[in-house]
Amino acid sequence: MPKTKSAERRMRNSARKRLNNRSVKSRLHSLEKGYLTLVTSGKKEDASKALQTLSSAFDKAAKNGVVHRGTANRKKSRLALRLAKVK
């Protein structure tokens, strides 16, 4: 348990931020999973729309510090390459 008032406040803040970060990461994972199912099934138009929403979500998560900017860029790049391979 925290001993000081500031440590209590930090504990509350970190718990709140942890929940927020988990929800954002969970949303990213579910969007990515849906995108990959569209890519593997060969639905290129739907997959390109899903890639736009996924890229936007990664950018927002990187802006807020949930994921690192380089990680978001790497994921977006690799997901775009998978879409490009689909014919």
Task: Summarize it.
The protein has 87 residues and is mainly alpha-helical. 85% of the residues lie in helices and 0% in strands.
Description:
- The chain is mostly helical and 87 residues long.
- It has a single domain, classed as Ribosomal protein S20 (Methane Monooxygenase Hydroxylase, Chain G, domain 1, Up-down Bundle).
- Helix content is 85%, strand content 0%.
Q: Helices and strands in order, then pairings?
A:
Layout: H1 5-41, H2 44-63, H3 69-85
Helix pairs in contact: 1-2, 2-3
Key words describing this protein structure:
single chain; 87 residues; mainly alpha; Methane Monooxygenase Hydroxylase, Chain G, domain 1; 3 helices; 85% helix
Contiguous uncertain segments of 5+ residues:
none
The helix fraction, in percent, is: over 70%
Shape: elongated
Top-tier CATH class: Mainly Alpha
Order of SSEs, N→C? Answer: HHH
Number of helices: 3
Rg over CA atoms, rounded to whole Å, is: 17 Å
The second-level CATH architecture is Up-down Bundle
CATH fold name? Methane Monooxygenase Hydroxylase, Chain G, domain 1
Fraction in beta strands: under 5%
Largest sheet: none
Instruction: Give the overall average pLDDT.
Output: 96
Q: Structural class of the secondary structure composition?
A: mainly alpha
Q: Tell how many strands the DSSP assignment holds.
A: 0
Roughly how many Å apart are the termini? 57 Å
- Full CATH superfamily name: Ribosomal protein S20
Number of structurally distinct domains: 1
